[in-house]
Amino acid sequence: MKSYRDPAIRITLLPRDTNSQGTVFGGIILSYIDMAGAIEAHRRTHMPRFVTV
Asked: Quick check: is 9 in a domain?
């Protein structure tokens, strides 16, 4: 079992990240997921460049 680690990123969502209904834009969430994936991939591989899909 893996031990606890700090999250790859911590984000505070602001009112500018929401639509007129007050919910967060899906694209904002997906971009943060992509960013967290890239950070974790770099941590594990130490490669200077890679592509997230």
From this structure: no
**Beta-bridge mates of residue 24:** 18
Per-residue model confidence as pLDDT tens digits over 15-25: 999 999 999 99
Q: Contact, 18 vs 24, CB < 8 A?
A: yes
Is residue 52 domain-resident?
no
CA dist., res. 34 & res. 36, Å (int): 6
> The domain containing residue 41 runs over which residues?
15-45
How much is the pTM? Answer: 0.74
